[in-house]
Fold:
Amino acid sequence: MTRHLALAVSTLAAASMPAVAGDLLSVNPTIRDIVAAVSSDHIAATERNLQSFGTRHIESDTQDPVQGIGAARQWIYGQFKSYSPRLQVRFDTYRVKKQGRITRDTELRNVIATLPGTVHPDHQILVTGHYDSLVVHPKKGTKPPELDFDRAAAELFAPGVTDDGSGTAAVLELARVMSSHQFDNTLVFIAFAGEEEGLIGASLFADKAKKEGTKIDAVLNNDIIGSVLSGNGNMDNTRVRVFSEEPADSSSRELARYIREIGWRYEPSLAVECVFRADRFMRGGDHTPLNQNGFAAVRLTTPSENYSHQHTVTDTFENTSPEYATKVARLNAAVAASLALAPLPPDVDRVIEKGEHKGETAPRITRGKSGYDAHLEWKKENPEPDLLGYAVVMRSTTAPFWEHEVFVGNVQEYTLENVSIDDVVLGVKAVDKDGNESVVAPYVFRPRALHKIETY
Ligand SMILES: [Zn+2]
Structure:
């Protein structure tokens, strides 16, 4: 259809319009349906259930059918199983030796539900949270106060509803809603364990994924998405923070930009507040070990943290907002569905075949025939059955978000005449016939290795 091929330039900063490809200014009705099906009643019910286990401390009881982490993980497993026979549900089990905050050898289980993709089943989109909980008390007489990770803490009441029953509830709700649909790429829903003892479950999972060469394209890690009233009285249920690691065009940063763009289309009442750093000061989350193993992973978290409820007996259902967690879950649903339906991003890098940098990769960007243009090339990694074409994006090197976008058709090169490749950032994304788009693949300048100069 001709309207699909119309060239148009949109300024994202001005209007945040959807892609120019496909139906102009429309949203994908499938994604809209998925987002609308995310239910705050289900999220609230999950949060109540998670609190009912008393504690989900990694060293708590594993045999009791009602209390402790054993009952909790079995319940999560059963919930995943109950949603759809198409979800492949499993425990991801490790034996962790006594070390650090772990006071005895402990069996740890992440709970994982996989919805296999139909076009690129080897490409995975992860939606994660941690289901373990913790209460800690400052150690008596230590200055500054150290936290007491003694063995007794394992059986204390640790409701952990906001941290991170809220994230776990979002993961379960997305598995429930999305498992009645089919996607091009594989969706993986994970409830991690051992986050509170040092990101243990996510670290072991990430190490294994790297060793096995698992293609994890994006990780949406939800941790503390239930709080709307912070300890200093600030109240905010209209924003969510998305933390992404440096540098400016890391794969995690491109994912954060994507979340901001897609989020606005489907959950416009929730502003995505990108924070351009890996996480909050001196505190961690399960996205970090995924980053350290080379995967694109971001943390979604409330701007209204209440520290007096974190890791205490007051992190209860009464002190959380399932409605806010629902908004964040809807954002997750929009982004995960969009990524899972989208074509793979184009490959903008090539391997240098000769010369002193042989074997290194370089972006396929040159100054073109004139020597003064921006000439971009890219490759389509896999044939996409429903590919419409590509859009080229551009921004100033000092701008946080893409500023310009042009749909260039189903081609594999494009020239921006008289644009200096030294002065702007350029990228390209793939778009399908329904308007689903990939994350942007940026043309990244990679600093060369230090050159040793011999002196005499
Ligand atoms: Zn947490």
About this structure: The pocket of zinc ion is lined by residues 130, 163-164, 195, 223-224 (CB under 6 Å).
